Amino acid sequence: MNQPNKGFSIREMIETNKKKKYSTTNVFDKVMPFLLFLSAFVSVVTTVGIAFTLGFELFKFFERVPVAEFLGSTEWYPLSADQRFGVWALVMGTLQITVIAMIVAVPLGLASAIYLSEYASERARTILKPILEVLAGVPTIVFGFFALSFVTPILQAIIPGLKIYNALSPGIVVGIMIIPMIASISEDAMSAVPKKIREGALGLGATRLEVAIKVVMPAALSGIIASIVLGMSRAVGETMIVTIAGGSQPNFEFNPLNAIQTMTAYIVQIAKGDAGYGTIEYYSIYAVGALLFIFTLVMNLFANWVTRRFREEY
């Protein structure tokens, strides 16, 4: 006589569990959009806050230094008695580091991506790619001392007269540092190319190298260019490597054998206490920071445009 009641209680439990599951899912669906919106909102507010802070302090700097001197002069001596604020000396140092870094990183990064995507076995890929990406997690100050105490002596043995502080050594090490970024993003873009495209090219008699260079790379061009631009942004914003191994001599000359000072290295120098709060030297770091912010923003916007412009639909 109790059997029907047991059956009824089981059905009741099932219905109750369904209601609880539906209730939990319903709450989750309502909460998650708010949390995601909050995350996006915090990112936007942070960016606006950075821009506002830089702009406010930048205004104070240009109250004392003419814009024409800042953007039109090539002499940067903010801590001397006869002060000069021509930012192009710092821009030239940053440009030297970026150019040398990209000369090192682009060929090696793309070669690594081609090997991982087209030649490496699945087992080799699962082992080598994480090892390559570990390089991106090494603190930049370690790279800085590596450049100063290991790379520079080797270069001095090869290039007579090379100074202990120079642009060549930190440029090479910055390039080594951004290889994982270029290799990883490019490999992801190349791996996303459908296998049927490779098989079609191989069926027409192309070699694996020809398939990689003439078929896969053009198909993954948006991701490859985006990785290069992002790597360039990383090189422009690098701080500790150039501070330790590049020296502190702003010069408007493209000579990688001499000491330099980049925009980020100058910010570090002043932030360490070389100038008091409220002085013109103090406000100059905001002017340099604003210019650096504009450079990196433009490059990131360019990377996004390239990604949309050259994206392939499969």
From TrEMBL:
It is a multi-pass membrane protein. The chain crosses the membrane at residues 34-56, 85-110, 131-155, 167-190, 211-230, 283-306. CDD domains: TM_PBP2. InterPro entries: MetI-like, MetI-like_sf, Phosphate_PstC. The keyword Transport applies. It is found in: Cell membrane; Membrane. Gene3D superfamilies: MetI-like. Its main location: membrane. Keywords: Cell membrane, Membrane, Phosphate transport, Transmembrane, Transmembrane helix, Transport. Residues 91-303 form the ABC transmembrane type-1 domain. PANTHER family: PHOSPHATE TRANSPORT SYSTEM PERMEASE (PTHR42727:SF1), PHOSPHATE TRANSPORT SYSTEM PERMEASE PROTEIN (PTHR42727). Part of the binding-protein-dependent transport system for phosphate; probably responsible for the translocation of the substrate across the membrane. Belongs to the binding-protein-dependent transport system permease family. CysTW subfamily. This is Phosphate transport system permease protein. It comes from Exiguobacterium mexicanum.
